[in-house]
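Support reply, case 0932

Customer input (verbatim):
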Amino acid sequence: MNERTLNDSDGDRSLAIVCGGGSLPYALADAAVRRGRRVVLFALRGWADPQRVAAYPHHWSWVGQIGRLLQLAEKEGCREIVFIGSIVRPARRHLFVDIRAIWMLPRLFRLLKGGDDHLQSGLGRIFEERGFRLLAPHEVAPELLMPRGPVGGRMPNDRDSADIAKGIALLHATSPFDIGQAVVVANNHVLAVEGPEGTDQMLGRIVELRSNRRIRAPLGTGVLVKAPKDGQDHRIDLPSIGPKTVEGVKAAGLAGIAVVAGQTIVADHARMAEAADQAGVFVVGVDTNGIVP
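Our regenerated output:
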C-alpha cells in the first residue's frame, strides 16, 4: 500500500511531517505519536526511506510538488507542519513542479538563487501563507534537543576545548554567507568547512585527506563542531547529529563532536551515547560561544 490515511475526525490533531533523508523524521513522528498526535508523513522521493515511511500514514511527492503537498495536507486536516531530514537543493531542471504549483514557479526559481537558509525559509513562508503553522521539531518533541554537557562518558581535553572555541567562532563568522553549519578543527587548524555535500561527506573528505597524508594532526585529535547560522529560523534545518555522525567522526580519526546545546537535534540520545563510548570519542553540548561545561 503506497498511501494510508486515517479518519478526518482526527484531523484537528494531525501533524504534517515533510521528511527528507536520515532517521530524524521517524524519531520525530514517534515522539509526536507518544504525545497523542496523529502524524502524516509527506515523504520526498529519493530521500525518505520507503521501508520506514510505510509504518505511518503517508503520501509521496517529488521535490517541487508544492501544490500537491499543500492540497494533500489540507485534505488530511493538517494545520501544523514540520520540515525535517536531509536533502540537497535541487537544480532547476530537477524540480518536478506540478500543475497546481505552476503559478509559483517564478517564486521558486528566485528562492533557488539564494543559500539554503533563504530557500528553506521561503518555502516555509509559502505554507504559512496558506494558513499552516510552521513548527520547529523541538516544539513537537523537546527531548530531541541536545543537552548541555557530555552525552556518553568522555569529555574534551584542553586542546579539544580550544578547537571547539575556534570552530564556533568560525561558524559565527561564516553565517552571513549561508554556506554550512559544520567545521572540523584540529590543533588550531581548520581542516574542513561544510558545503553543499553535508556533514557525512565532509567527514569523508577528512578520511581521504588522512589517507593522502595531507593532515599532520595525529589520530585522535580534532573536533567536528556544528552550530546553527546566526539569525537562522530555528523552525527549519537546525543542525543534527546521531550515531551515524559518531561513526563518521571515528572513521575520520577525530577526538569528538561539539554542538550547541538546545539548538541541535539528536535522533537517539541513548544510541548515540553508546556509539560514542564504543568508538572512544566524546559528544558534548556547548554554549553559543563554544564554552564546554
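We compared this against your earlier run and they match. Two observations from our side: The longest strand covers residues 38-44. The domain at 8-142 is CATH 3.40.50.20 (Rossmann fold). Please reopen the case if you see a mismatch on your end.
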